[in-house]
Design a protein that fits this description.
heterodimer, A: alpha/beta, Nitrile Hydratase, Chain A, two-stranded parallel sheet, 10 helices, B: mainly alpha, Cyclin A, domain 1, 5 helices, 2 strands, 65% helix, globular
Chain lengths: 208, 119
């Protein structure tokens, strides 16, 4: 295959090798010329790989399930709870920008939506899935959340109240899911491994 | 608002056709070179060599070209190959590097790898 814009190189036999060599050449020359540094490349990857992601949210949720005092803090002041777990700098948000957590219970189910991708709680949930930015998802979730949730495979009892939280530039909402029955003896790590970004958005439950 | 350029850049890319592959709230890279290519592009735009939106528009156009010249079920589709071609194009357009120096460095690596493979 010829990659568009790449006609000058006629090495079609091994695309993997070509791509890897091309990127190596670009990286080496950019570093040589002082345009970028290898540490700035690593730093960007590290940010997406280890600093920001749903593993942070999962850790917060698992701890809240195990520790009632921490749970109160998380619901009252999510940013302070993040700091308490020594999550990387930036987790507590910049001035005027906070994360808030809505708790799911047997009678209330919370769902988060937002108009802009920038309102997604990236530090705890990672990258927003493609449908989250879809205006249809947002509009329908506000209008008929029960139907949307059932399309996600989540059929809630009619008695369960659904609350929809629309994030803004100032407040990024996310959900503290209900702890599944029969998991009281699990460690925090085991519990964290059960928690998905979808559960923290309110489009699914945590299951064992 | 964004507190990190990385978040801003990725949110620009996350609209429509230019959306990078993701899995469970994380970027989905199959290999090291796609990771590096991703980070180089974010890095260069962070430093002002080009706008992320410019990168996105070119991604959308290049993806469209690919789709017009391939069967949509073509399994040879690789998002990061397109990414690399766009990155390269902008690097030349903005005169960050010139085509011939990249070309000769690239050939050196390929030759070195092929001779290594044949040994």
């Amino acid at each position: 295959m010829t990659i568009p814009g790449d006609e000058m190189f006629n090495y079609s036999a091994n695309r993997e090798l070509e791509s890897s060599a091309k990127v190596k050449a670009l990286e080496a020359l950019l570093i040589e010329k002082g345009v970028i540094t290898s540490s700035s490349v690593d730093k960007i990857l590290d940010y997406f790989e280890t600093k920001m992601g749903p593993f942070n949210g999962a850790k917060l949720v698992a701890k809240a399930w195990k520790d009632p005092e921490f749970k109160s803090l998380l619901l009252e002041d999510c940013n302070a709870a993040c700091e308490k777990l020594d999550m990387p700098t930036g987790m507590s948000g910049a001035e005027g920008e906070i994360m808030r957590v809505a708790e799911n219970t047997s009678s209330v189910h919370n769902l988060i939506i937002c108009t802009l991708c920038s309102c997604y709680p990236w530090p705890t949930l990672g990258l927003p899935p493609y449908w989250f930015k879809d205006p249809t998802f947002r509009a329908r979730s506000a209008r008929e959340p029960r139907v949307v949730l059932s399309e996600f495979g989540l059929d809630l009892n009619p008695e369960v109240e659904i609350r929809v939280w629309d994030s803004s530039g100032q407040i990024r909402w996310w959900v503290l899911p209900e702890q599944p029955v029969g998991t009281d003896n699990m460690s925090e790590e085991e519990l964290a491994s059960l928690i998905t970004p979808e559960a923290m958005m309110g489009v699914s439950k945590v299951v064992v | 608002m964004y507190t990190k350029y990385e978040e801003y850049a990725l949110s620009v890319m996350s609209g429509g056709d230019s959306n990078p592959p993701k899995i469970n709230g994380k970027l989905n890279f199959k290999d090291d070179w796609s990771q590096t290519a991703f980070a180089i592009a974010i890095n260069l735009s962070k430093k002002g060599y080009f706008e992320m939106e410019e990168f996105r528009q070119l991604m959308i156009k290049t993806i469209r070209d690919w789709e017009n010249s391939h069967d949509l079920n073509d399994k040879s589709w690789n998002y990061y190959e397109i990414w690399v071609s766009v990155l390269e194009k902008l690097i030349y357009e903005k005169e960050v590097l010139n085509r011939s120096e990249v070309s000769s460095f690239f050939k050196k690596i390929i030759d070195c790898k092929s001779s290594f493979k044949n040994e």
